[in-house]
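hiii, so i know i said id send this last week but things got crazy w the move. better late than never?? heres the sequnce for the chain we talked about at the cafe, plus the structure i predicted for it. fair warning i was half asleep when i ran it
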Amino acid sequence: MKFNFEFNRYSPREEELYGTILTLGNGHIGLRGEIELEPTIYGTTVAGIYDYAPYFYREIVNAPRVIGLQMMFSGEPLNLSTHKLSRYERELNIKEGTLKTWVHMETHKGVKIQYESLRIVHGKRKNLIILKFKFQASKGGLLTLVNPIETDVANPSYRPEIMVKHCSLKELYFDEESIYAEVRTLDDRYSIGIGSSLITEEKVERSVIKSSKGIAEVLSLQIRPNEVYEFIKYVVISSKNDENLKEQVLGELREAVELGFGKLYEEHREYWNNIWKKAKIEIEGDDEAEKGLNFSLFHLIQSLPRDSNISLTARGIHGFGYRGHVFWDTEIYALPFFIAVFPDDAKRMLMYRYRNLKPAKENAKLNGYDGAQFPWESADDGYEATPSLVPLDMAGKEVVRIYTGEEEHHITADIAYTVDLYYKFTRDEEFMSKYGLEIILETARFWASRVEFDEKKGYVIRRVIGPDEYHEHVDNSFFTNLMAKHNLLLGVAYFKKALELGGEWAETVKRTGVNEEEVHKWLQIAERIYIPRQVDGVFEEFDGYFDLEDYKLDPYGIGEARLPEEIRKRIGKTRLIKQADVIAAQYLLKEQFDLETIKKNFDYYIVRTTHGSSLSMPAYSIVASWLGYDSLAYDYFTKCAYIDLRNIYGNTHDGFHLATAGGVWQALFRGFCGIDIKDDRVEISPSLPKKWESVSLRFFFRGAWIDLIVRNNKIRARIINGTKNVKVCAFGKEATLSLGKEVTLEK
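okay and structure toks below
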């Protein structure tokens, strides 16, 4: 699974795009793919490290750049931007988590230079980065290598002219073998310690430079013509708040150097080999789809934070889009993949929400509600991080007013939905009794206070923004009301379950103070919550939506650029919607609708959706596959799988579209493979694209790892690990899986 990219020249603009595509990470460190031989504004991402920022409350910190490398040959700086290139090639190997680079250039004095590097962000050793590189010159001369830790870094802000500095320098240090820099965020919450050593078996002269820009070690050696010289750069980054941070970092660095590249590389390859044993999808008959899907999963997996202080962010470890904030993207789009394939990691992401129940309760109270209201955007501390406005010009005279933080409340129900989904898959009693139950009860409590009673309609929810963000301040969003109702009913069901089971379940109920009278009120509200009207079987997206000006689109197109300017200017006054909204609700709560109703709504909304958000196509692809709209389902699936490789939305430089990566997996799992969890069994109703012969995948269900091969007329399943038996249904037939026994069900 290798992805090769050849370039005719060095282009800073292209470099920024491929910086995202070629990112490497391990859940702690994110290292963008810009080439090490050129300067860049992008440093290193360290998961969970945030600082206060203008407008955006808190944003992920652009930490010191550690991968940079400067070369001079016989006094001439070697740069791709200033020299003639005969080869510039990069190779991302997602099977092994490596990035290779080849550069062939000619100096101004006619010397031919060959440079080759291998970069890894170590999978097992979360603080370790390694750059192994080779150098060859057609003539002899003096090679000077500069290995810097660049501490003078800042975040790009709402305009490219503005950079925001988040780190202050605390210490620069060096010894005979290494250099060290320590910075601290300006809010004084986090320290980052960085150690680096550049190692070679050649005889070199070594010196160290300190400056306001950081610290660097300088190696000089005489090069013989056409001989290959090899170097290894080791970097250790730790964000552990510890008085002994320097000793810890330098100790890890010495250990890495002593182990050597060979052993460390084997550890790293083994780590990714174990990842792919669980996560790899094989699609027989469609190599392009298989590559695009697994490429998306690679970036999704390596972005997952390794502790519960932060969850998966909208653009991952790859860039500063959305300032490193956490949205509903995580729960609705990304978490289902982790629940099914890496349930322990999914639990950690949900624990991020549990750890932030206190600020969610404060948020609700601040807005005049009870229970827990989760913020639309959150960072490390769990408070609302959505900017209320963003300036468009330097003077701040033109601003964009943003209401999502004030009105897009459905995220609270989305989180409860996914807590329940996790429990359905895992039956993790400990998590649910201690943590998940409290989330569901407190979010149900929020909705009970959020609704208002209307004598004609029942319980209504006024002034919200649904997933369709073109329309603000709407009343009775179909998606919001339906998800709120679902949240309330979850509260009722889990309260009853807790009383029956007692023990830790009952203790959690006691801790929340929820009682039978309150829960009875939740049930009354849920039964009378207003769901927008249906006209010819189509649900109105929100009150008054059908009264707006109608406008239709080609369902195969995406984005707003295809709209006439006059429509774009008044898009909120039309029936055009940004992304799946009614259809997203019907996808999530499929069991509440018959297929004919879903079809009527799909047919209506698909020609009125711009797909102005990358979150739109996954839901539409899934529902299209249910309805037999094979061409459209496959078209959306492919676009999602290649959304960043082809820069479909033109903003890949801001970071990877991780929600879409999770969405494309769901399009395969729930869409084409038709896998649903019903009570204690797995139901499979495949509808594979015509050219797909089969899909092979693995997933976890209630203590059992299931290996599954899906064809349109046959499925083969077996349990490869676990002690639990699992019921599987397909083509109207049922079988029980047990360890070591393969089952085949045919049409």
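btw The chain has a mean pLDDT of 96. thought thatd interest u
miss u guys!!
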